[in-house]
Amino acid sequence: MTPVLLTQFPLIKPLKSMLRQTNHIIKIKPYSVSSALPLLIFVIKICDDNALETVKNWTFLLDKHGPATVRIIVASIGLSGLYFFCRSIRLVRRFSCFKTVNDIPDEFFKKHIRLRGIVSNVDWKGRLVVSHIPIVKLPFTGNQDSEVLIHLAAVNLEESGINWLRHNLLNNYIKFELLCKNEIDNSAVCDVSVKYKTLPMMMKNVNREIVRRGLGQVINYTDNEHIKALHMIPRYNRLVQNLLLSESYADKRGVGKWKRPKLVEAVSGYPSQIVDLVKNSNIFIFLQICYTAAKEGAIKYKRNLKFMYKFRQPFGHPLFRGITRAHQRFINKTVLVKDNNVEEALKILNKKMSQEKLLEIYRRTRYYEKPYQQRNQYSFEICKAIYNEDMNRKIALISRKNRPDRWPGQY
């Protein structure tokens, strides 16, 4: 048998990492036997013929018990994985129904697990009473009563905000992300989302919607629990930053709590001390006295006018548009003159007509182009002209004869 150099074969190079020689004895690393068994047999055959029987025994054992060993190892790994999966959060979240906040594990709050449920009530503090719904409902479990108290994270609600929650979230499906637990009132501080009515596939954040509408504001920095959550929970910090942006948007729009008063309301909202100073000033008192005197004088003047109108009714007739035509006998008596003095009669007649405010009608009437020269005839013609003028106006009003909207042939 001719000696063979091991370095001549390219298969020997991978074996350098698996072989080590001490005192001219070749030792094999145990973890590499199964992966390079053919190569080892070849090397051992060359090096030592006695070791071949040992290797054959090992291979016989592996062929006999190897499949069973592999199956046992795989089954044990699968069972251990199934055990850890059953204890995992995902399985608990899928099948568990939490009745109160105390039933929720603390690990859920640390990992900010998102749960779902239906809002059954909104209390006077603005907390949501949610009936928790598991993702996978097991058969034959029945309906389980659940009342999980949820507080909107980092939001201080107004009365209008509580009414908005009752109107929009009652008996609606929501999703709430657990941020922390409030030990004082035994509630969960959550970031709540609800579906749009117009777009059911999309969700809107209730916390931001409340602040955006001006129905609430971000909690003040004097609250110790709020400050602690800001430093300890990064997701709570990001939510507060978004809420501050929504609050500035509501302040710029002037909606809800940030609604600005009108000009009249702003003027009336000045400090009461300035209003008292103005009311007690001398100028204001003088103007108030003048206003009272003018008001009383106007009332008395109106009463006197009514009395004068009633007093002169026996001496005249009310005409169209407030024109008063004096009685014929009254005018005839006032213009009687001696010796048939026409000039004196016209002078007195014009004076009386100017006093009665009838001179304009006299000047615009065609009956005075050629007046009569007989005794006392002027007064008769003047009264007749006034009467005709009044009748013409009334006829024009009734028949629309002089109106631009009349049609041809209308009287």
UniProtKB/TrEMBL annotation:
Annotated organism of origin: Trichinella pseudospiralis (Parasitic roundworm)
Single biological process term from Gene Ontology: translation
Keyword set, alphabetical order: Ribonucleoprotein, Ribosomal protein
Keyword Transferase annotated: no
Recorded family membership: Belongs to the bacterial ribosomal protein bS21 family.
UniProt xrefs under PANTHER family: PROTEIN C3ORF33
Source superkingdom: Eukaryota
CC per GO annotation: extracellular space; ribonucleoprotein complex; ribosome
GO molecular function: structural constituent of ribosome
A Pfam family the protein falls into: Ribosomal_S21
Name the UniProt record assigns to this protein: 28S ribosomal protein S21, mitochondrial
